Batch of 4 targets.
Target 1
Amino acid sequence: MSGFFGVASKESCVLDLFFGIDYHSHLGTRRGGMAVHGNNGFQRSIHNIQNSPFRTKFEKDIEEFEGNLGIGCISDNEAQPLLVRSHVGSFAITTVGRINNLEELKDDCFAKGATHFLEMSSGEVNPTELVAALISQKDSIVEGIKYVQDVVKGSMSIMILTSEGIYASRDKLGRTPVIIGEKPEGYCATFESSAFLNLGYHHYRDLGPGEIVFMTPSKIEVKQGPGDKMKICSFLWVYYGYPTSTYEGINVECMRNRCGNLLAKRDDVQPDSVAGVPDSGIAHAVGYSNVSGIPFARPFIKYTPTWPRSFMPSSQSQRNMIAKMKLIPVKELIKNKSLLLIDDSIVRGTQLGETTEFLYESGAKEVHVRPACPPIMFGCKYLNFSRSSSELDLVTRRVIQKLEGDNVSDEILKEYADPDSERYKNMCEEIRRRSKFTSLRYHRLDDMIESIGLDKCKLCTYCWDGKEDEDC
């Protein structure tokens, strides 16, 4: 994932921008960047944040930056913001999203006169640079953003800094949020609403799907109104959203509490305590405890001073090792205990299996597992939520391959996604057996949607049910 933040202020924007971006650090692990515009024109800095926090890398930059307009990002992949000079003017650009037809759009740019793109170390084209090239094919920035929204397959939210103000655009189906905050000194635009709370801003409004606005220190001007169809990512609430953030009027922490409530209402086990896998599983576990009456406990604590983010570094084997090293047991709360463990999800199955193993090694008698979402059946094709290169990275698909062989039809997959089917029960039992859970019960999709509180037509649930953008 990635996250961005922008400020248009009557005063210096630098500190607000610095802290606003820093509050997105849970969304990315590789690059951080800031760009501001002031009396000296554009200033821009990008740093590698793989081994140290955003905050420490940019402390020197903020002493040198000056300006009242600025944008920045935390990125899990490409370097940004980029500085661009084109016939529509000079601008800085940062994006959040995923382009599934990147090669097609790159070739289209070449056909229309583009001579080259800078190649990243991965050998790929920087998606943000491609977006800038697409925008520059049109006669204005607004027309260019509209064009990008029309031609990109996937999702693409955009923030563009000019000398006059900031363009903010939410992706066509609103898969990720863009939220406007206001205070007397000006406005901000952000992925995470919690990023502006300690900076003195108040919620102004959420942009609608595909909406484009132009933000200056004194006003918000709508350049394109919102579309009437939304498919916001459900994982915002279940996993990668920050607990203090609110999207579409629904707070993440409150949703996770409701999620735990509904998990408890369908359950019949009586463990000694219920625990959440830090950090995103904790609120789910509190909700479960509140309804069930089973005490909430913390039988292991996450060591955060040097490993604050669970999905760093980029190597899967290193991530697994760090995930194991970060959790330190409280053996007095584990030995001879029956534990119920809630995690936000099971993706590959490796980390939760190792967590269960270390609980047994610490003396646990039973480990019951309750993921806070349904089984993940399909790799995300709209956001860079997962690094999975193949759907066989998903534990569900490996189990289905074992049970069915290589040729699995869409109809069979639908059965495995149905919590009332025999195939679903067989899949869950095999996952339970492999990971040595005492019992395993996933959150149902209908309950998860109820936990969020939006109509299913407004939610993307593709990774669980494989349903794309069909009309409801």
Target 2
Amino acid sequence: MEKNMWKIIDKKQGSVYRQIMEQVMKNIEKGRLAPGDPLPSERQLAKVFQTNRTTVVRALDELRDLGIIISRQGSGRYVNQTQWGRFLVPRVNWRELFSQRYEPLDDDYEKRVAKRKNQPYFLDLFSSEMSTELLPNILFPAYSMTEILKEEQQMTLLGYLPLIEKIKKYLMDKFHFNFSETELLVTGGGQQAIFLILQTILSSGDAIAVETPSFFYRLALFRATGIRLYGIPMDVEGIDLNKLEASVRKNKLKAVLVNPNFQNPTGNVMSQKRRKELVELCRKYQLPIIEDDVFSDLSFQSFTPQKVSSLHSIDPENVLYVGSLSRVLGKTTKIGWIVGLHSFIDQLAKAQEMMEFSMSVLPQIFAANVFEESYEAKINLVRKELFQKSVVLTNWAKEQQFFELSPIYGGYYAWITWKGKKLTKSIAEELLEAGLGIAPSFLFGEEINGFRINFSRINEKQLPFFKSKMAYLSEQLR
């Protein structure tokens, strides 16, 4: 058996047989087990999990019933080559199906964070939203019902026409995109855009590549659709193309999903050279690229290491570009968009209507007003505030010797690594109880020495508290 593939079961974490099932599925998702690969024997698994063979058999039988593995008489059990992810069960157990598809990963840890948020003296650097103090102050006009009904006449399958025009102008001015208005679809945020694309171009059981570590591992939409994720490591320039190509060949990937600007959680910016090479590789294997670019508005501009093109600009025919206002407007205005070839955008628009994902006119009117309200000037103030906060964090990193802060070129996430002990779930929970919430690497599909913090939520008054808790954490990890 491959080293580090299997871990001893912790009975305190819940049902033992469910934990065994999760380990098998996680090893498939990460590419450690490929379709057709044999599983260790029941006796070997019982030994490594430190549990009884009966529990192992129950877990494997459940996986077989779900179509994830198959049994071959006399030769053991194998990863199913044709049915993985389809979850075709002869006996419908709704609770099992729901929990496997929709439960957030590491739900218990996130619940602990949510509970602590409501208590005093807690610094929440776990949250995925920018601090509300930094959100731009956008004034929304009042509309009468008559005016709203009139504006509805400008709604199409692609969205509210005035909003489409403003997004198009914004993308052309900022990124030099060149596309027609029939090549842009308005969606209810960036995540809905990705969900819509996956539902349209993939089938349950299909595999895609993502960078690792990646926030995509936190999204329930992949479990809900039965899509398999294969994590591809990164270096300083971005996704490792040699490992990506090996995974394409081994795992029959159908698409590549990347977050090239201020990657979540590492903050990494993919180099121009790597972007061009990624496009060339995906052309070679005829793989579509989904470019998730929801943080580009928060670039520190001159502080970015180099000028880089969007993947869509390099190859508009094979790259679907996903953008959003949600990161800079908070949860109140979920507006996103997809840019791609007219023929495909048309199909996405029809799929969106069929799924009843189409948005009402009102939030789109508000979003169109964002671009009227000196958006660039207001977002520039946000960038300056974030840059100043990043400087404070960088100065802290220079003052101490244990933690290493990755370069921050934009966005509001920072990635911190160290050389020392592993940050276990129990240590992370101790830190929560001590008043500091962080997002450890185990939430992002990798158990490496790293964690993400949302530095937009640190102010000068909280800095001493942050420093003291980080000093405490360093002692636990040495």
Target 3
Amino acid sequence: MVIGPRVWVGANSTIVPGVRIGEGAIVAAGSVVTKDVAPNTIVGGVPAKPIREIDA
């Protein structure tokens, strides 16, 4: 698992081994992240899916 800088991870989230979370991403509370997360993206759900991109 690699978590980039400026990443927010909500409470009770699960990130499986081998997943990369890009710089500036946000993981919503209670999410299960099973795939890589692109930089500056908000993800959420079970399994986590992109919700929207953040303007950098």
Target 4
Amino acid sequence: MPGSSKRRVAGQVDRLECAVRNCWEQWTREGTHVRKIGSGVTRKTTRREDRRIVRQALVDATVARSTIRADVGVAIVPQTISRHLAEAYLKSKHPFRALPLTPEHRQLRLQWCQDRSMWNVTDWQKFVFSDESRFVLGTDDNRVRVWRHPV
């Protein structure tokens, strides 16, 4: 890095100063910047435990991450379980609350609207609409989530 400070280079490549320093030291020591095989955080689970995590999510789509962690018997954080399931192309979603509308249902709804298109205010005052909205102030909405392959 002749002529440039590590701080300036780090700013130009949008990396931390220590990352630039480590890269430069590796280059001067080994003549390469390539990452070594096996570098990084060591895995907390074996391949067999990874397959067991995925199998549990496939067998019971509503299983919670805490249940999977207890069944596997390895001290891992919930994010690790989510990462393993994401590697298996599984995503956590809310289950369907109702089946999607069929063309027949859509036709019936349209017919219902057309039948009432000429109603006046007095007719509509006799009718009651209900709308259910859910508001959550905390982080947990206590809804069941399911693990599914993205469509």
